[in-house]
Design brief:
Blueprint: E1 19-20, E2 33-35, E3 39-44, E4 47-52, E5 69-73, H1 79-91, E6 94-97, H2 117-123, E7 142-148, H3 156-162, E8 171-178, H4 184-190, E9 197-198, E10 202-204, H5 208-217, H6 223-228, E11 234-239, E12 242-248, H7 252-262, E13 266-273, E14 277-281, E15 291-294, E16 299-303, E17 307-311, E18 316-325, H8 330-337, E19 342-347
Parallel strand pairs: 1-8, 5-6, 5-7, 7-8, 8-9, 8-10
Antiparallel strand pairs: 2-3, 3-4, 11-12, 11-19, 12-18, 13-14, 13-19, 14-17, 15-18, 16-17, 16-18
Helix pairs in contact: 1-5
Length: about 350
Amino acid sequence: MKMISKIILPIIFSIIITGCNATNNTIEPVKEEVKESNVEVVNKDTNTEIKEENKVDNKEEQPVDEKDLAVVYFSVTGNTKTVAEYIKSELDADIFEIVPKQQYVDADLQYNDRNTRATKEQDDKTSRPEIKNDIDISKYDTILLGYPIWWGDCPRIIQTFIETDKLNGKNVIPFCTSGSSGISGSESTLKQYKDVNWQPGKRLTTSKDEVTNWVRSLDIKSSDKSKENNNLNTIKIEVNNKELIVELEENEATNELVQKLNSGNVVVEANEYGGFEKVGSLGFSLTREDKQVTTKAGDLVLYQGNQISLFYDSNSWSYTKLGKVTNMSANELKEVLGSGDVTLTLKK
């Protein structure tokens, strides 16, 4: 897995995202007031006011040789900007805003009008809105890239930025804000750019606690080590002294699972069930996107949000797909799993 080396304590990086309600593939400017213990954030259309009162920083200051992480974000309604500022504060990181040459106004974001600017841009996959400012991120190894979700995807201006080639060879952690849609649709778009080392991303709200917890959960490893492993979409499962390679689906659940595994292995005591699967508790919950599916041998799924099932035969039920074993045939997998209960050790 490509990540970036732990610099001297603490790690720095930040990014944030402006959220737009993406329900039913729509863009909806968010007008809301978010109040937290020490920070009051008021989003007013395209402007965000941040008032800090009696802010207390409990982090222990420690020396940092250099900043090799930066936050780059695009924000219109102010939500993504708010998140980015939280990240900057937590990590004392450098931050850059993507500024459009033609600013977006409220009328551009009317989600129920198919003729608005933003809607037309999202409908046209070749649209590339111009960027007004030049952003120099050449000295950074890791970038946190933030944006709102528009019509279930990243705004086209994000693709404009990527196509400047400024991100090539860098480790990039995307984050987004959204009223309801997840990040997976936008990640599919981002991963079309193969010269970028994409890391699992996260949809965030303007809750400072949520943003802070996510930032602290990230595992930053050296860029040199990350280049040794270019496959960010796989995990390993050790069972009965054999190693299974699982190619992951792109969804919220797998993003959250990878973040857990970045902090250490996850051990699941899995029971034999039904003559077709091994199932056991994760000890924590992941985001459910359950659908009725018919599994095949090698499928790894999330069951009831907090259990995983590894199939060596077929079954039809409502699951969230996590991935599929790619290095064994159905017969080989059945032989490795055996007929009884097993211990599954999930790891990166």
